[in-house]
């Protein structure tokens, strides 16, 4: 099995005229052979895909292009916009303390990976509190936790 990583291209559909702000997103993935790849970074704009998912992809347009989800990992993905940039690290630390990993896109947008063993409802409740106080806004990008999907 090859150790090298590749980027898998996901074409994005516009939800409205401004979002997402890009037409595609590339996610790092580990080649598994036979056109299968395991996603290894948190999506910022792709919906329905999480870290650890196995996807089918093929060469096209000079890149490896996503074709379908083959096996879901059980991880969920959330997205957060922190309104005040000075609060980003505090939000990241709290999310990580709840057992999740994060990736920062630009200065105020976080992708959050919630592993299956973590209480997604507890994470969402903390985020709802922060959202109510006007600190941030969040959305579910891919919910795979049992009973919450």
TrEMBL record:
- Identify the domain of life: Bacteria
Q: Which InterPro entries match?
A: DUF4265
Name the UniProt record assigns to this protein: DUF4265 domain-containing protein
Native source organism of the sequence? Archangium minus
């Amino acid at each position: 099995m090859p150790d090298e990583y590749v980027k898998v291209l996901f074409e994005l559909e516009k939800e409205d005229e401004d979002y997402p702000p890009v037409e595609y997103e590339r996610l790092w993935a580990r080649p598994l052979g036979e056109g299968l790849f395991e996603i290894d970074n948190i999506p910022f704009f792709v919906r329905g895909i999480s870290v650890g998912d196995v996807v089918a992809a093929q060469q096209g347009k000079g890149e490896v292009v996503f074709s379908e989800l083959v096996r879901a990992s059980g991880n969920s993905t959330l997205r957060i916009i922190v309104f005040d940039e000075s609060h980003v690290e505090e939000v990241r630390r709290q999310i990580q303390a709840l057992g999740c990993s994060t990736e920062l896109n630009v200065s105020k947008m976080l992708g959050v990976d919630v592993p299956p063993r973590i209480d997604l409802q507890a994470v969402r409740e903390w985020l709802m509190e922060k959202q109510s106080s006007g600190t941030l806004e969040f959305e579910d990008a891919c919910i795979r936790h049992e009973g919450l999907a």
